[in-house]
């Protein structure tokens, strides 16, 4: 009888210990989850703080320039000098345009989660040629368009245009006023893919940011806000493609956009 009672007591004790262990495990797990959530929240707040600081830094300079030249435009001596008046007016316009571009980039980045891609067969060679021609007309630097192979992809023309324009603009701005600067756009078929090349002869990507150029608010340009490449990559990946980059310090940068070809039919 004693052995049976002892066995029952041992079993009861074991079950009690198991229950206590389970409760302890649940408590430990909940504490761990709470600590992880707090850490993640701190990371989000830190990232947000960094982003806001960078945005404010980028906006501060053009605002100060606009305020300075707005004051100058009210100076009677400047008003009486056509050249000085014209320079101040141009400076205000240039900085206002710069701020508008920043806001457009922020808007495009913020809209990423709500972006709806409506894909249909698209003549990629036509789109690439149009972008090259428009960018060449809008900038002092001509865009060299190498012979383009005919490629049909399944894409949203509006968003894909935005991504490619971001890459071309990024390359052009990276070269600045560099002498003998060249910007070339190519399009080739490689197996089941269309490969767009955006090639510049600029200074190349700085080694310290080479691994983070597709992260938000990372820019190698003095006046850049660091969202153009981020938006471009998001759009390309939403089309089932990818962006590759090769860069050599002092010898330029070569971006490649790889998109799957569409085999469903002709472009509309």
Topology at a glance:
Elements: H1 2-73, H2 76-79, H3 82-110, E1 120-123, H4 124-138, E2 143-148, E3 152-155, H5 157-175, E4 183-190, E5 193-200, H6 228-238, E6 242-248, E7 252-260
Parallel strand pairs: 2-4
Antiparallel strand pairs: 1-3, 4-5, 5-7, 6-7
Helix pairs in contact: 1-3, 4-5, 5-6
Describe the structure.
There is one protein chain. This protein is an alpha+beta fold and 268 residues long. It has 2 domains: 114 residues, Orthogonal Bundle (Helix Hairpins); 141 residues, 2-Layer Sandwich (Heat Shock Protein 90). The protein contains 6 helices and 7 strands, in the order αααβαββαββαββ. It has a 5-stranded mixed beta sheet with strand order 2-4-5-7-6, covered by helices on one side. A two-stranded antiparallel sheet has the order 1-3. A hairpin with a 3-residue loop joins strand 6 and strand 7. Helix 4 crosses helix 5. The termini are far apart. The relative contact order is 0.11. The model has no long low-confidence stretch (mean pLDDT 79).
